[in-house]
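ERR on first pass: missing label on line 2. Operator R.T. fixed the label and resubmitted. Corrected input:
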Amino acid sequence: MSETSAIRNDWTLDEVWALARLPFNDLLFRAHTIHRQHFDPNAVQVSTLVSVKTGGCPEDCAYCPQSVHYDTGVDAGHMMDSAEVLERARAARAGGATRFCMGAAWRSPKPRQVEQFAGLIREVSALGLETCATLGMLSEPQARQLKDAGLDYYNHNLDTSERHYPQVISTRSYRDRLETLQHVRNAGLKVCCGGIIGLGEELRDRVELLHTLATLPAHPDSVPINQLVQVEGTPLSGTAAVDPLDFVRVIALARILMPASHVRLSAGRTDMSDEMQALCFFAGANSLFFGERLLTTPNPAADRDQLLLDRLGLRPEPLAAGGH
Ligand code: SAM
Ligand code: DTB
Ligand code: SF4
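pass 2 clean. output:
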């Protein structure tokens, strides 16, 4: 098999399988070589997350502490007021983040909620930060409204393979997700789309998820690879832990298949050793969430992450020239 690091959207499932079966060293060498062709290997893009509207979500995603279907101790909250969101955005910027990601536990936003977010996006953009939002399913007009407000990225994950998906979520379909991604792309927003490892899926599901991502009409600009954060009360709490080396393989595959996309070592880092994270960065991860909280669950403390980046000689990636 020969492949170059050209951007391809025509990967076959067999090609992805062939990569997935490579010995670990061959896979990592190939991924790292491709990584260096497209990125500074010592730079990581830094994002900070804030949950603007937490809990009470009508969807039944079996991994999620914010679903009303599960008793996890996460209660439905009100929408955070804009002064607090801005305070967090300023703190994120001071901490070195270049992208500020705002989440809401919705199936899809109502017209008034899109307006409220458009206001937040204008204010956060004015701070010189890239903006990202993750608000559930979006229609194309809604995506355009957010784009007009200055939104840079929209996060909407496929989560797993189409085959495994019904084991995880019943309240919205895989097709619904693909449609939202199309609406977001059509509106000219950058796409942030990835998945979760550790949902009880097989290797086949990881291969199929990556194949689906890499054969979208355009590769997502950012590909978050989350490791399941197990939350008591969710149906997936107690699922077998992921083999760290298998997780590194997923990062390497994402890097090879989507050479120019930022691959984010996303949720689950509190359960990862420094050495595992170092291998992920070598395999092609070049983005992370910085700050002590993801949406409702903990993330490594800022000083701990800073120490890790220092030990690895990694530095935050500056905003692209011309800002966003
Ligand atoms: N409610 C919106 C939606 O799902 O479309 C946006 C917020 S939702 C929390 C964003 C993503 O976070 C999910 O698609 C899922 O991939 C990820 N996520 C949620 N809970 C997680 C968990 N326990 N572990 C890892 N990732 C998780
Ligand atoms: C993504 O892929 N991971 C982030 C972000 N996109 C929105 C969310 C992780 C959530 C982890 C569980 C929690 O903190 O509630
Ligand atoms: Fe709701 Fe999003 Fe959680 Fe699913 S992942 S239950 S849609 S907040």
